[in-house]
C-alpha cells in the first residue's frame, strides 16, 4: 500500500469530495502511515480469507482464487501471480521473505477444529487449517527462528499480532451448508469465542504485547446471506436493507468477543489488546456508499457473480464458470464475489479501522514497555 497514491481525489469524483469531508472528518491521505509511530518491527497475521495472502493457493494452485478475475484490480494479475506485493508473505510460500512478519491466515479457516464442527453437523469444511493449526505453524516458526536467539521472543514485543478475523466461517458453514437453525448456530458462539480467546493467550505466550482481535462483519448485509435468506417480509430488513436477525447474530458474537477481550486485559495488564470493529467499519461504508462513490443501484450486488436480486448464485461461483464474469468497474461495488469485498471497499474500511484502532494501541506506552522487557 505504501507505493500507492492514496489521495482521495484519485478515488472519487469531485462532486463527492465536499460531502465526503463532512462524513469522514477528512481521512488524511497518509492515514496508513500513522501506524509507523508504533515502531512495529513485524506483523504476524492469523485468520481466514479476509487476510490470507497465498497460503490457500500454495496448497491448492488449482483454486478458483488463483484465476482471473480474482486479483484483476491488483496489478491486473491473478492473485497467485502477485509475488512482489508489499504485504506479508504467506507462511507456505517456500520463497517467502519473512523479515517483517509472516502471514499464517488460510482461506476457509475456522476458529473451531473440523472435529468439533463435525459434531455440530457442520460436516463440510473445505480446509483443516483451523485457528489451532495456524497457531501450531506460528509456534513452529518461532521455535525454529528463536532456537539460537534467547531474545527472540522479547523481540515479539515490538511486533503487531492480528488474531483474526476468524470465526466467520464457522457460522458460514453452519448457516449456508449445514442449514442449521439460528438457535443451533447461536449455541456455537461461546465455543467459537473461547477458541479465539485461547489463541490470544497462546500468542501472548509467544511474547506479543500488542494485539488486534477483529470481530465479525454484519453478515445480514452480504449477498451470500441476502440471497439464501431472502424474504418478502419487509419488516425483516433494516434501513440499510440488511437482514436484522442475522446482524443481531453478529452483534451477539461481537459482544461475547469484547467481553473475552476485557477478561484478557485483566489477566494481562501489560499487554495491549484492541478490538477491531469490523462491524461498525462496514456499516459506515454501507451507510455512506453513495457519498463514497459506489453505485447506489448495486450497493448490495456482487461484482463477480450471476443471477438473482444480488447477482449471486452459490452454485455458480466467481471464476468457476465462464458465464460468471466480473462487473466492468469493481470500484463501484462493495461486494466482490458475494462473500468478500472489493479492493476499494477494503481500502476504505482500512482507513476507518486504522483511525479507530490507532489511539487504542497506545503506541508510546507500548514502545516504552517493549524496550524495557
Q: Could you explain how this protein is built, in words?
A:
- The structure is a single chain.
- This protein has 14 helices and 5 strands.
- With 373 residues, it is α/β, with parallel strands linked by helices.
- It has a domain at 32-279 and 351-360: Rossmann fold.
- The chain has a 5-stranded parallel beta sheet, with helices on both faces.
- Strand 1 (42-46), helix 3 and strand 2 (101-103) form a beta-alpha-beta unit.
- The two termini are 32 Å apart.
User: Average pLDDT, to the nearest integer?
Assistant: 85
Q: Identify the CATH architecture of the domain at 32-279 and 351-360.
A: 3-Layer(aba) Sandwich
The spatial strand order of the largest sheet comes to 2-1-3-4-5
Poorly predicted ranges (pLDDT <50, ≥5 residues)?
A: 1-29, 78-86, 366-373
- Helix/strand-derived class? alpha/beta
Helix content: 25-40%
What's the N-to-C terminus distance? 32 Å
What characteristic shape results from the CA principal axes? globular
Strand coverage percent: 5-15%
Number of strands: 5
CATH overall fold name of the domain at 32-279 and 351-360:
Rossmann fold
Helices and strands, with pairings:
Blueprint: H1 8-11, H2 14-24, E1 42-46, H3 55-59, E2 101-103, H4 114-119, H5 131-145, H6 152-155, E3 159-163, H7 168-177, H8 182-186, H9 189-205, E4 210-214, H10 223-228, H11 244-267, E5 272-276, H12 278-287, H13 343-357, H14 363-372
Helix pairs in contact: 9-11, 12-13
